[in-house]
Amino acid sequence: MSNFLVRLWDAIFLPGTNRELEQATHASFALLTLSLVWMLYTSRSIHFFNLLVISLCLWAAVAWFLTELKKEKAKLKSNGELLAEQEETSLSSSSPSSPSSQTPADSAESAAIPPSKGKTTGASANFKD
């Protein structure tokens, strides 16, 4: 039990999720649901029913988000895969004349804007060449 708490404490300060954090989240929601059901049973108040519905909807949304996060995490590439892909693309586009090797800044510079006919406006009008 203490090992679980230590791993949970460490998981709080790391980006992403892990098994301990998910288990703690589900346990917290289960205990919240249990306490709201007990309060609903003892008091028969509509307020506890409303809180129970809200907490169950929130639990369902969190569970859905965690499953979607796991799906997306499976699609992510590792750093090694990204580096290999980057090296592969840099080797395949080594010729400088190919248009695919231009960066967006290069292509923006090559699409030259026609010079103005001696008229300057704005802040550049105050400076002389």
From TrEMBL:
Entry keyword Oxidoreductase: no
Highest taxon, organism lineage: Eukaryota
Transmembrane segments: 47-67
InterPro entries: Pkr1
Keywords, alphabetical: Membrane, Transmembrane, Transmembrane helix
Biased segments, Polar residues type: 118-129
Biased composition (Low complexity): 89-108
Region Disordered: start-end pairs: 85-129
Pfam families referenced in this protein's UniProt entry, alphabetically: Pkr1
Gene Ontology CC terms: endoplasmic reticulum membrane
GO biological process: vacuolar proton-transporting V-type ATPase complex assembly
UniProt name for this protein: V-type ATPase assembly factor PKR1
Organism: Pichia kudriavzevii
